[in-house]
Predict the structure.
Amino acid sequence: MDKFSGQKRAASHLFPPIDPFDQRMLDVGDGHNIYVEQCGNPRGAPVVVLHGGPGGGCSPAMRRYFDPELWRVVLFDQRGCGRSRPHASTRANTTWHLVSDIEKIRATLGIDRWAVFGGSWGATLGLIYAETHPDQVAYLALRGVFLSMQRELDWFYGGGAGQFWPDQWARFVNLVPDDERDDLIAAYNRRLFSGDLMVETRFARAWAAWENALASMESDGHGGESPADYARAFARLENHYFANKGFLEEDGQILRDVHRIAHIPGTIVQGRYDMICPPLSASTLAAKWSAGRLHMVRSAGHALSEPGISQELVRVMKGVVEKRLKYGL
């Protein structure tokens, strides 16, 4: 079955496409203006959607995981990507800037508490935001957990995943000279920020292609080539964050501070065969998070668009909104 068949099956679990009732550019300081939209019911239960990457941007499909009659869905493009400006910029762009931006969006929209929905890097950011502002988070729905730990970066950029996908790994590695292959994040960083647009674009596409190839089980290593503008923002921002260890104080900080969200209910939806964010992180988080529940989806990889992942996330969010008063939404 090709990836398009899989995407159609995933879409069959989602709500129909909807348009935003509100779109705006929000000045968050430091020369950054971020794109924010709202969909669904203006008086519904509020939820903020955190996209992956860093640098991925939000998409119309992300609106469709929520019943539009019952949810007030807030989506935004994080600094430097999507429709936010300046594009592909890493200036004043750290995890803590993004946490501050989420709070500014919440305050600007007049929301007291909301659910947080995020996958991959969006799960990372959601956890850090919740640990920083636990009183503002009513529920956490996380997919494909990434804890921004060195072992996770070593897995994906140090050859672990490459043992399963040697052909794709070779294409990713072979762009770099032999004497730089001991640290591919640093090697790519030098080229993604070289100042030569052609070089930056070439290496950005290679960076994005390596991740796209492993995102879905049904792609079978053929993720396709990303458009140049998207790839450049995605690769530069992702590399910038990974080169700086997620701007965290120490390795394992999210797990260190998980006691701060012990009272916040949530669900982790994890693909059993996730090659980008292996299930160890989701399992470790669930063991330490007393109010969190882990659902392992068999025959599923990393992507939000995996049919089993989509089906389970829609089911989870239906359950949350049905009990919105219990969760204080």
About this structure: The CA atoms of residues 65 and 314 lie 5 Å apart. The two ends are 40 Å apart (CA to CA). The longest helix spans residues 197-215. Strands lie at 22-29, 32-40, 45-50, 71-76, 114-119, 137-143, 266-271, 292-297.
